[in-house]
Amino acid sequence: MAASAFVELPWQGRTVRIEHQWVGTDRADAPLVVFLHEGLGSVAMWKDFPQRLCAAAGLRGLVYSRPGYGRSTPRPADERWAPDFMHRQAHELLPALLAALHIDTTRQPPWLFGHSDGGSITLLHAARHPVAGAIVMAPHLFVEDVSVASIEVARQAYLTTDLPQKLGRYHDDADSAFWGWNRIWLDPAFRTWNIEAEVAQITAPVLAIQGVDDEYGTLDQIRAIRRQLPATQLLELPACGHSPHRDQPEAVIEAAHAFFSHHRHHNARGQA
């Protein structure tokens, strides 16, 4: 990927530095897709997937690391996230980032592409802000026992293996990234977290993708989206875990390209 750039913006009473990269075509009139990473993700952890998707679909891409991740401002060591942490990312941080980068979401609403926690943030943002459409992979709409069990396994791995060193390749502060995510997901107060009502407010088209063998959630997560939004397209991938873009990138790119193409043409006809 290209070298990261940085932008500073006020958030939660302090100034945070947000790492971001532009990928894909440099055509200013090309549709923009914003990539939102998983709970332990960052700009670098996407690897070359955003470029591959943007090249296939002729899109501009914006990839960024949330505060606490990648090369963005780390989470203060004593900061514990509240159950509304994804709501705050969707309704405060992302709009502030888009504004700081001079992206006019009213004139040309962006597409969103989110994975895991980033998929949940995508859905929350789309429920309240203008977007052209949303693609989500392995999003969470509610907390399942399988999610909590796998996140506990991750906690043990972080404490007893070289996982901190591995995450340190992608984050300036691996503890910031890991414990912010892990502690809130294992907090008993988070067990009742549920965004199905918010998802029901989305008016943009949605493509939801999940691996049949996802270790962090069941297929009921994406099926719950279609229960709220019957027009949602679902792609359930066999022999695929929690990261479809790594396990089956070609299938994800093909489905995303078709989704973008169909709805871009539909939107163009509607504006004609």
Automatic annotation (TrEMBL):
Residues 33-255 form the AB hydrolase-1 domain. InterPro entries: AB_hydrolase_1, AB_hydrolase_fold. GO terms for molecular function: hydrolase activity. Keywords: Hydrolase. PANTHER family: ALPHA_BETA-HYDROLASES SUPERFAMILY PROTEIN (PTHR43689:SF8), HYDROLASE (PTHR43689). This is Alpha/beta hydrolase.
